[in-house]
Every structure is written in structure tokens, then in C-alpha cells.
Amino acid sequence: MSSSIKAGAAISYASIILNIMVSLVYTPWMINTIGKSDYGIYSLVMSFLSYFLLDFGLGSAISRFIAKYRAVGDKEGINRMFSVTTLVYLCLDIIIFVTLAVLYFFVSDIFVKLTPSEMETFKTAYIIAAFFSVSNFFFNPFTGAMMAFEFFVPLKLLDMAQRLGTVGLITIALFFGGDIYALVLVNGCVALSISIYKFVFVKRNADIVIKIKLFDKKIAKSLFNFSFWIFLINIAQRLRLNLIPFVLGIYSGTAEIALFAVGMNLEGFIYVFSSALNGLFIPKVSRMVQENSDDRSEISQLMTKVGRIQLYIVGYIIIGLFGFGKSFIDLWIGNDYSDTYYVMVFLISLNIISMTQAIGTTLSYVKNEVRYNSIIAISASILSFVLSILLAPRYGAIGCGCAFFISMVLSSLLSNIFFKKILKLNVMEFFKNCHFKICHIQFFILVLMLICDNYIGIGSWLNLIFAGGIYTIVYAVACYYLCLNAKEKTMVYEIVNKLKKKI
Questions:
Q1: Burial of 325 (C-beta count, 10 Å sphere; 0-12/13-18/19+)
Q2: CA 109, CA 138: separation in Å to the nearest integer?
């Protein structure tokens, strides 16, 4: 991996660890401060708005096309592409604004389970969040631009600043008597500020010229052909998980929404760890395809290499949550949220496969084969949605978690068929050198943890920290001696030596 990718990944992981440590303290305090009902409303508002704030695949399209143009040295193509997307985003922003304004008058007919006071709170939070979301939407392309131009370090630093800035300002606001409206306001202000800075950074450092007169119909057609399928993928992914609070809001109420929202937060920890490397490889894979469009051996090797790294990281967190999750949730949120453990198990189980195959997804973007991804995502999301509607009235959040798990099984099966048949990746070699050589060790450690938790028990934060420390040592030693290959051990040596020199 290049030095920029390594630096970007290192900052990503450092940011994620810091964010999780902050969230472990911040989230339960925030819930207790604003109340379970307001937290459920806050989650419902953000989830509902997310359905209408998709970038329609244009963000991924921008990363893909800029990387492609840079690989062949076409600067004029980059300028024309950005001119097209600027006009498109402006038009979409206007459409989204009108749509959200109209929907405001119908939310009481949609969320019938909310009480009159909860509906009043929802409407006010909706107005604030919608205003900032529409204002922020226009700047979405510049995140993709920073990825494509390989500005990995500043991009990851900005992501860290946004998360820490949001948590810090919300903490201050709530400490001085703020409420749910303060949460929404701070989220919007910080996100908009970061987006504006990204715009300024790209303009100054990428030397991009944006002029409406550079509008190119051919580029626009290629952009829409690609982004349409990405848009369908994004819609499907939103439906698969973020639509569930909407379903619970109709059939179960705010209490079940809050249970599921906490499970989503825990699933989010897994996602951010696994996605730390996502997007960093689009330029690299683009160059590899440009140099040899037919040979997939190098990309298959890269998929295995990156997949193993992801599996070590994702596996560590998943096993930790499975093993000590019940005790952790009771201590972290309270006994009222004990059912969140089962929601979490359903939500994150299949991530141990799907989140280790980012290179396969990246290749589908580079080769413009994303229509298959969209078909898979839509199929899985429809299944998740239908099963959630069937299970939510009786089983609430746990039933919806089960629906999501079943949809992920379908998605994983279809995705690997796609990688093998369409992208010509060596999927069996990937699993042989990745999961088959690592997962059995991880499973054995998980069994030991469950035995310890069931028969010894963890009743305090001190015991949990002590058990977590032992688990970390056992996991690290077992992976080092039983899983790491020669190249990975060399990488560990290099990292340790660099840290020694800096110390």
C-alpha cells in the first residue's frame, strides 16, 4: 500500500477508536439527559430524512470518473465532469427542498404511533434538520473529489474533526440545559461547516475549474448511467437498515425504536472500523485495471491482503461484542436495553464476511458493473422490509433484527456469485486464504469468552475492563502466532519499529 493510503488508514483507525471511546460515555449520558422518548424521536427524524438525502450515486461516480481521468491524464475531462455535477446537484437540491417541505404537512399521518407532544417535537426537529441537510447536500461531491485526488490524510482529519466537534458541542449544549433541538442544530452546523471547508480545500489544492458552459452531454450521460445504479444501491441499503425505525414507528412505538437505535449504534462501530479503508483503493484499482484490464490475479491478491487486515480488525470487535455484549449493554445503557444484545447479534453477524470484501465492490465501481450490485441490494432490502413488517408487530426490534440478518445472508450469497462469475475474482482462493485461516481461531476464542461470561460473570466496569484486557492479549497473541503470514508479520515489525523511533 502507498504511504498516503497507510497514513489515511492510520488516521481513520485512530479517529474511530477515539470516537468509540467518546461514544461509550457520551451516548448513555445523552440518552439519559434528553430521555428515551426524545432519543427515539431524534433517531426517527434523522432516519426519515436520510431517505431523501441520498446523493443519487453521484459521489461514488465522481470518485470513479476522476480516478479514471487522472489515470490517463485528462484534466479537461475532470473540469467538465465537475461542471456537470455542480449543475446536477443544484437541481437536485431544489427538488429535495420542495419534497421535504411538502412532506412536513403529512408526517402526522405517517407516524400515527407518536403522541401529540411527541409529534410536536418531531415537527420542530424535522424543520431544523431538513434546513441544514438541504444546505449541506450541495457540497457532497467534494468528499468524492478528495478521495479521487488521494487527499486521504486531510479527508480523514476532517472526518475526525466533524465527529469530535459534534460530540463536544452537543455535550456543552446539553450540560447547559439544551434538549433534542440542540442535538439536531449542532449536528447540522458542524456538518455544514466541514462540507464548506472541503469545498474550499478542493478548489485550492485540486485546481478544478467549474463553469456551467463546460457542460458536456456525453459526460453527463456516462455519469448518469453509472450513478443511476449507485443510487439504487444506496436506496436499497437505506431501506435495509434505516427504514426499520420507520417500520417500528408505525407498528411498535418509540420504545422499540430506541432499542433498535442502540443496536444500530453498535453495528455502526463495526461499520466504521471496516470502512476505514473503503474508497482509499479506488485510484489504485483504477490504475491496476488501466494497466491490465483482463488479468484479475493481482486484484484478487489485493482483495485477500486487504480482506485479512479487515478480518483481524472486524473480527476482534465482533467477537468482543458477542462474548461480553450482554454485560456491556447492561453496564453501558441499563437493563431496560438488554434486548438490544439480540438486535446487535442479528445486525452484525454477517459483517464478518461482507465487510472484508471491499476490494470486490471497488472493482465493480471501476469496471462499471454496479448494476449487479444494485440488483443484489434491492432484492435483499425488499426481503428485509417485508419480513420487518411481518415481525415488527409481535417481536418488535428483535424481529426486525432477525429480518435484517436473513436479508444479509441472501446479499452475501449473491455478492460472492457476482464476484466470481462477473468480475472473475478468485473467490474460493479469497476465502481459503482469508476466513478459513483465521475464523476458526476467532471462533475458539469466542467460545471461551461465552463460557467465562456465563459461569464467572461480569458485574462491574472494572471486571469488564479487566476481562477485555485479557481478551485483547489472547486475541493478539493467537492471531500473531496462529494466523499472521510472513508479510503481515513484517508489516507488524515495521510499525513497531517506527513507533519505537518516534518514542
A1: buried
A2: 30
Distance, CA of 328 to CA of 427 (rounded, Å): 36
CA nearest to 369, candidates 275, 291, 296: 296
For cell 443544484, what's the residue? 90
Residues 138/94, Cβ–Cβ less than 8 Å: no
How far is CA 25 from each of CA 57, 166, 167, 345, rounded to the nearest angstrom?
A: 35, 14, 11, 22
pTM here is 0.70
Contact 33, 112 (CB under 8 A): no
**How distant, in Å, are the alpha carbons of 27, 264, 304, 320, 339 from that of 333?**
8, 14, 37, 17, 11
Across 442-486, where does the E strand assignment appear? none
Residue 412 CA to residue 431 CA, distance in Å, equals 13
SS3 115: coil
How far does CA 19 lie from the centroid of its chain? 14
Tens-digit pLDDT profile for the chain (503 aa)?
555 556 656 666 666 667 666 666 777 777 778 877 788 888 788 777 776 666 666 666 777 777 777 777 777 777 777 778 778 778 888 888 898 888 888 888 877 777 888 888 888 888 888 888 888 888 887 877 787 777 777 887 888 788 788 888 888 888 888 788 888 888 889 888 998 998 888 888 877 777 766 666 777 777 777 777 777 777 777 667 777 887 888 887 777 888 888 888 788 777 766 666 555 666 677 777 766 666 678 888 888 988 898 899 888 988 988 988 888 888 877 777 778 889 899 998 888 888 888 888 888 877 778 788 888 888 888 898 899 999 988 888 899 899 999 999 999 999 999 999 888 888 999 999 999 999 999 999 999 888 887 777 677 888 888 888 999 999 999 998 999 888 888 887 877 776 666 65
